[in-house]
Design goal:
- By secondary structure, the protein is α/β, with parallel strands linked by helices.
- The chain has 18 helices and 26 strands.
- The strands form five sheets. The protein has an eight-stranded antiparallel β-sheet with strand order 3-2-4-1-10-9-11-14, covered by helices on one side. It has a six-stranded antiparallel β-sheet with strand order 5-6-7-8-12-13. Strands 18-17-19-20-21 form a five-stranded parallel β-sheet, with helices on both faces.
- The longest helix is centred in the C-terminal third of the chain and has 22 residues.
- The chain is globular, with a radius of gyration of 25 Å.
- The structure holds 2-deoxy-2-amino glucitol-6-phosphate (AGP).
- 2-deoxy-2-amino glucitol-6-phosphate (AGP) binds next to helix 9.
């Protein structure tokens, strides 16, 4: 939920830190700060608000050094203001820390440290890390950090430096991500790869319990006792340009338009139309486990939880296996009934969501087989689980998930086909037709993206309303929920998604001429049902935005030309409708948010990866 970075090397430390923080701002942006150490000692600057506020105050010609750390914050403890902005210092001011996570026992530690004469100046939990390191520091920062770790409880990733021990950075990970970038006579430590990708592709993903020691010419990784660990660098294949906006106004819009490529890349090499077979070679689920599997549970959060709900339809229909879906924050605490004949799937684009990680760890401890569908190589979830099925959406910078969502749905469809085949419930002929449908999805999504202009016109009419209702049925019910989630998280408009059949059981009381209703009324077996829901809503004054299938005009007679709107999607197979019908809802949320002047890529109060409970 925060972005942290450290740099040590020959280049302008200040500029490297600011550039790195710029690429990490999606992780949190309510305050920022840097500390650099040079020949004239340490300089530290922090500011409230966006990174721009800090960058305006920094002059690299007078504030620079050979090593330093930086932070962009998403507040957990302590108001988002300058005083609580990182880096935080010890009593001497010579040890500084940047931190991502929560120190759960910080109040106990703060009291003990205060009783021993330490003075605190902030409300944050982070500050106690600096004072705890100070307590053990006698000139060896690595040793002091390792000793301090023995007192810290919670989830944290932090980087420390000391003015009294020049040219070394110490990083520690226990939960939130921390990755090293290994350059020529320089090294980086950061929350995520984009912070250093334009300078080096050699990365070491730290694991829980790792302590990293960075110097200009060397990087070491040890455990809390100081034992050397053999962490091999991995080569990052992303193209740094993928992380830039490439002419789009927002990362989110770029990522909405990248969906066809993300879908194609996620499919690539995983099926053969000739043989009608799905090849998920990265999985090693053995035949005995697959044949004896009794149940699948899927745990996820937010948009990933909605992908899970679509996946339930696919897996139950194609593999005929019962699937439970639950939000990870509930799953982890409800003591689920699990055993070694069950598969628990985690879906998390970041691979770092605390609740999803906890659900997967608990499932593994209960003896279940665990599999994660994830978009970030080397993320914690991929290290916790027995199996990983990667989406290949490329880095997703916009806080609102878009291309990772549709890529997750593709992975779930492939997994359902794969399991159906292995369980003998699908013949290659059955599968070939469905794969052909899936192979067409990217092209149909490209056609759906051409609707952006008319959808922007609809957004112009509705951007000032206070409430929205989204309705869907069957495997489009989760898409209605996703449309509502996109709208609320981007535009701060209250929006609810509902299974259309539930209207009579309460939500219809909300309907009047101030409540627009977005209905997914595609040409599918449930069309007649949702058409009657739309009629019931119209009879009570609702304005309708209906997403229908090109060439299916059955709904037109019940709509008013001057009040209601239709969005015509290209005709497509019902099985891939979740992939196609989410596109107009993403665009609607995007255009309404832009018209309302909201910060599309960094919506208020949100962060791209929720690494704490
Ligand atoms: C989606 O637009 C939101 N940003 C949020 O709900 C997100 O899906 C959720 O936090 C889960 O993130 P994850 O996929 O990285 O676990």
């Amino acid at each position: 939920m925060c972005g942290i970075i450290g740099y040590i090397g020959e280049r302008s430390t200040t500029e490297m830190l600011l550039a790195g923080l710029r690429s990490l701002e999606y992780r949190g942006y309510d305050s920022a700060g840097i500390a650099v150490v040079g020949s004239d000692g340490m300089k530290l600057l922090r500011s409230e608000g966006k990174l721009d506020n800090l960058a305006r105050q920094v002059d690299p010609s007078t504030m620079n050094g050979s090593y330093g750390i930086g932070h962009t914050r998403w507040a957990t403890h302590g108001r988002p203001n300058e005083e609580n902005a990182h880096p935080h210092r010890d009593c001497s001011g010579s040890i500084v820390i940047v931190h991502n996570g929560i120190i759960e026992n910080y109040l106990d530690l703060k009291k003990a440290l205060t009783d021993n004469g330490h003075e605190f100046v902030t409300e944050t939990d982070t500050e106690i890390i600096a004072h705890t390191v100070e307590k053990y520091f006698d000139g060896d920062l690595e040793l002091a950090v390792r000793k301090a770790l023995g007192e810290l409880e919670g989830v944290f990733a932090f980087v420390a430096l000391s003015e009294k021990e020049p040219d070394v950075l110490i990083g520690a990970r226990n939960g939130p991500p921390l990755v090293l970038g290994i350059g020529e006579d320089e090294s980086f430590i950061a929350s995520d790869v984009p912070a250093f990708l334009s300078h080096t592709r050699e990365a070491i993903f730290l694991e829980d319990g790792d302590v990293a020691i960075l110097r200009k010419q060397s990087v070491r990784v040890v455990d809390i006792d100081g034992n050397e660990l053999d962490r091999k660098p991995e080569r990052i294949t992303w193209d740094p340009i993928q992380v830039e906006k490439q002419g789009f106004k927002h990362f989110m819009l770029k990522e909405i338009y990248e969906q066809p490529r993300a879908v194609r890349d996620t499919l690539l090499g995983r099926y053969s139309l000739d043989s009608g077979l799905v090849h998920l070679n990265e999985l090693s689920l053995d035949d005995d486990f697959v044949s004896q599997m009794t149940r699948i549970s899927i745990a996820a959060c937010g948009t990933s939880w909605l992908a899970a709900q679509v996946g339930k339809f696919y897996i139950e229909e194609l593999a005929r296996l019962p699937v439970d879906v639950d939000v990870a924050s509930e799953f982890r605490y409800r003591n689920p009934i699990l055993d070694d004949k069950q598969l628990v799937i985690g879906i998390t684009q970041s691979g770092e969501t605390a609740d999803t990680l906890a659900a997967l760890k608990a499932s593994k401890e209960a003896g279940a087989k665990t599999l994660v569908i994830c978009n970030v190589t080397g993320s914690m979830a991929t290290r916790v689980c027995d199996e990983t099925l990667y989406t290949h959406a490329g880095p997703e910078i916009g806080v609102a998930a878009t291309k990772t969502f549709t890529s997750q749905i593709v992975c779930l469809y492939l997994l359902a086909l794969h399991l159906g085949q292995r369980l003998g419930r699908l013949t290659p002929e059955d599968t070939r037709g469905r794969l052909a449908d899936l192979a067409r999805a990217a092209h149909i999504m490209e056609q759906a993206l051409e609707l952006s202009e008319p959808i922007m016109e609809i957004a112009r009419e509705f951007y000032l309303v206070d409430d929205f209702l989204f309705l869907g049925r069957g495997h489009l019910y989760p898409i209605a929920l996703e449309g509502a989630l996109k709208l609320k998280e981007l535009s701060y408009i209250h929006a609810e998604g509902y299974p259309a059949g539930e209207m009579k059981h309460g939500p219809i009381a909300l309907i009047d001429d101030r409540m627009p209703l977005v209905a997914l009324a595609l040409d599918n077996p449930l069309f007649e049902k949702i058409a009657s829901n739309i009629q019931e809503a119209k009879a009570r004054g609702a304005r309708i935005i209906a997403v229908i299938t090109e060439g299916d005009d059955r709904l037109i007679p019940i709509l008013d030309q001057d009040r209601d709107h239709v969005i015509r999607l290209p005709r497509h197979p019902d099985a891939i409708s979740p992939l196609i019908s989410v596109v107009p809802l993403q665009l609607l949320a995007y255009h309404i948010s832009v018209r309302r002047g909201c910060d599309v890529d960094q919506p208020r109060n949100l962060a791209k990866s929720v690494t704490v409970e």
